[in-house]
């Protein structure tokens, strides 16, 4: 058996063990069945690679069951499929986490900042998102979309008066889905992607050490960063 076939089977066996571990070592469940079962688990990236894994399983069976002798196999994996299975193995067994990929300094604002100051920042620095805090406690996320919505509502009421109006007035608390979420620094990128898919209102996912909203911000993920 060639070196590529050995490397391919070793990677396949590690993936198969990982699938087993996720399902607590089920009895009499084949590779393909485990893949299909785990593709329904949103917190895992199996769905992304489902078709690849099913094709890889066919190649594995051809290598193992159709081998003519120790030195010759009918199906020999090429370099592309070997690279592919290694990439899938890494994605499953050692998934990328939000830190360090999305680590960055995030500018925060006190909720009593005047709205007129927010508008100046938008004009001068082109910021589009404003995480609001009150003495270190997270209060909400203001976006350009929220600003536009607020101005539209105020205009319907009559003349817009920004005197003594602060960012706190922009926070919408209607008890429904929020436009932000917090995750710990070891959260996988796949988990964050699922958050965006499950909540169409989500404008940003903030990263703190342990997911505590009042912790120091280590980074931010926006929909355009994922999709």
TrEMBL record:
Pfam families with a match to the protein in the record: CBS
InterPro entries associated with the record: CBS_dom (IPR000644), CBS_dom_sf (IPR046342)
Domain CBS positions: 104-146, 178-226
Name the record gives this protein: CBS domain-containing protein
Species of origin: Tetragenococcus halophilus (Pediococcus halophilus)
Upper classification of the organism: Bacteria, Bacillati, Bacillota, Bacilli, Lactobacillales
